[in-house]
Amino acid sequence: MIMHPENSIKRRQSTRINVGKVPIGDGAPIAVQSMTNTKTTDVDATIEQIKRLERVGVDIVRVSVPTMDAAEAFKLIKQQINIPLIADIHFDYRIALKVAEYGVDCLRINPGNIGNQERIRSVVDCARDKNIPIRIGVNGGSLEKDIQEKYGEPTPAALVESAMRHVDILDKLNFDQFKVSVKASDVFLAVGAYRLLAGKIDQPLHLGITEAGGFRSGAVKSAIGLGLLLSEGIGDTLRISLAADPIEEVKVGFDILKSLRIRSRGINFIACPTCSRQEFDVIATVNALEQRLEDIITPMDVSIIGCVVNGPGEALISTLGVTGGNKKSGFYEDGIRQKERFDNHDMIDALEQKIRQKALMLDKNRII
Ligand code: SF4
């Protein structure tokens, strides 16, 4: 058994809500979310995308419901999906009531934007009756006008003031089944806002760097922002916002959690950057295996290192490891060098087979 230093992160104490079958807060595993980017009224395309997200391990999916037609489509989608679904609604309280009737698992709606007291109360009462939590979502790009004027520009305090307005509305209605996000596209702004909010409320926090950018820059910004917060114990669920296939959001989310040793899922590849010493094509091997092994959810570390400079050292602390050698490469299991060696030309197939066998074995041991 390979031992890694455990993270020593102490999670912020929070209350718990349940988004369908997924618990959020109060020590529950940090849930990874994503959002569909199909037209919700295109029921087939949306279902297909949700199923793809499920295959890469998403815990919860958010679907935007901008119209009553979309609410009707949501009903059909919900009937064919097992994973919890959140409806993203802006302003129209009738849509919130409709999707509640259709079995939504959480409403992403800001009570302060619903309209008069009667409308707010009808949505909150309905959520209470049906045990549906609410996510309050504040975004640095759409702060209320008076808050913008007061602060001059989006600041952490401005985001939190906006969030607290919505929180106060729910408090007055004795509704505590909610979580809050204070997202911004600027890393420091978002991090500052979450830190401030973390000390003000007891509810779970949904983390995100909003409109983070394309795949590469968005992943980097999210890793820095969420990495800072998560390493301080702040955050109970997250969504990585990328201008990319939502599948990538889920993968990046898990990679951030894996890197912090907060939550492991699937293979954590350790690979060298390669140089002229490499004995087999490390980059092609890693890329091929990442694709081929997307279905593996068993947590394990696999080191793929091009030569003996760093190979044995990494293999010692990996579940499985290969170290490039002349024509044939050394293979390690649980840190122990095996007699078996892999032909450098057959590396991808051989390693895939070993990883699958190991995953089966680890899964079997866990069940026992
Ligand atoms: S481990 Fe070997 S092949 Fe990989 S980068 Fe280092 S020296 Fe180069």
Automatic annotation (TrEMBL):
<dbReference type="InterPro" id="IPR016425">
    <property type="entry name" value="IspG_bac"/>
</dbReference>
<comment type="similarity">
    <text>Belongs to the IspG family.</text>
</comment>
<feature type="binding site">
    <location>
        <position position="307"/>
    </location>
    <ligand>
        <name>[4Fe-4S] cluster</name>
    </ligand>
</feature>
<keyword id="KW-0408">Iron</keyword>
<feature type="domain" description="IspG C-terminal">
    <location>
        <begin position="268"/>
        <end position="356"/>
    </location>
</feature>
<dbReference type="GO" id="GO:0141197">
    <property type="term" value="F:4-hydroxy-3-methylbut-2-enyl-diphosphate synthase activity (flavodoxin)"/>
</dbReference>
<comment type="function">
    <text>Converts 2C-methyl-D-erythritol 2,4-cyclodiphosphate (ME-2,4cPP) into 1-hydroxy-2-methyl-2-(E)-butenyl 4-diphosphate.</text>
</comment>
<dbReference type="GO" id="GO:0051539">
    <property type="term" value="F:4 iron, 4 sulfur cluster binding"/>
</dbReference>
<dbReference type="Pfam" id="PF04551">
    <property type="entry name" value="GcpE"/>
</dbReference>
<dbReference type="InterPro" id="IPR036849">
    <property type="entry name" value="Enolase-like_C_sf"/>
</dbReference>
<keyword id="KW-0004">4Fe-4S</keyword>
<keyword id="KW-0414">Isoprene biosynthesis</keyword>
<feature type="binding site">
    <location>
        <position position="314"/>
    </location>
    <ligand>
        <name>[4Fe-4S] cluster</name>
    </ligand>
</feature>
<protein>
    <recommendedName>
        <fullName>4-hydroxy-3-methylbut-2-en-1-yl diphosphate synthase (flavodoxin)</fullName>
        <ecNumber>1.17.7.3</ecNumber>
    </recommendedName>
</protein>
<dbReference type="GO" id="GO:0016114">
    <property type="term" value="P:terpenoid biosynthetic process"/>
</dbReference>
<dbReference type="InterPro" id="IPR004588">
    <property type="entry name" value="IspG_bac-typ"/>
</dbReference>
<feature type="binding site">
    <location>
        <position position="275"/>
    </location>
    <ligand>
        <name>[4Fe-4S] cluster</name>
    </ligand>
</feature>
<dbReference type="GO" id="GO:0005506">
    <property type="term" value="F:iron ion binding"/>
</dbReference>
<dbReference type="Pfam" id="PF26540">
    <property type="entry name" value="GcpE_C"/>
</dbReference>
<feature type="domain" description="IspG TIM-barrel">
    <location>
        <begin position="15"/>
        <end position="253"/>
    </location>
</feature>
<dbReference type="GO" id="GO:0046429">
    <property type="term" value="F:4-hydroxy-3-methylbut-2-en-1-yl diphosphate synthase activity (ferredoxin)"/>
</dbReference>
<dbReference type="InterPro" id="IPR045854">
    <property type="entry name" value="NO2/SO3_Rdtase_4Fe4S_sf"/>
</dbReference>
<feature type="binding site">
    <location>
        <position position="272"/>
    </location>
    <ligand>
        <name>[4Fe-4S] cluster</name>
    </ligand>
</feature>
<comment type="pathway">
    <text>Isoprenoid biosynthesis; isopentenyl diphosphate biosynthesis via DXP pathway; isopentenyl diphosphate from 1-deoxy-D-xylulose 5-phosphate: step 5/6.</text>
</comment>
<dbReference type="InterPro" id="IPR058578">
    <property type="entry name" value="IspG_TIM"/>
</dbReference>
<dbReference type="InterPro" id="IPR058579">
    <property type="entry name" value="IspG_C"/>
</dbReference>
<dbReference type="GO" id="GO:0019288">
    <property type="term" value="P:isopentenyl diphosphate biosynthetic process, methylerythritol 4-phosphate pathway"/>
</dbReference>
<keyword id="KW-0560">Oxidoreductase</keyword>
<keyword id="KW-0479">Metal-binding</keyword>
<keyword id="KW-0411">Iron-sulfur</keyword>
<dbReference type="InterPro" id="IPR011005">
    <property type="entry name" value="Dihydropteroate_synth-like_sf"/>
</dbReference>
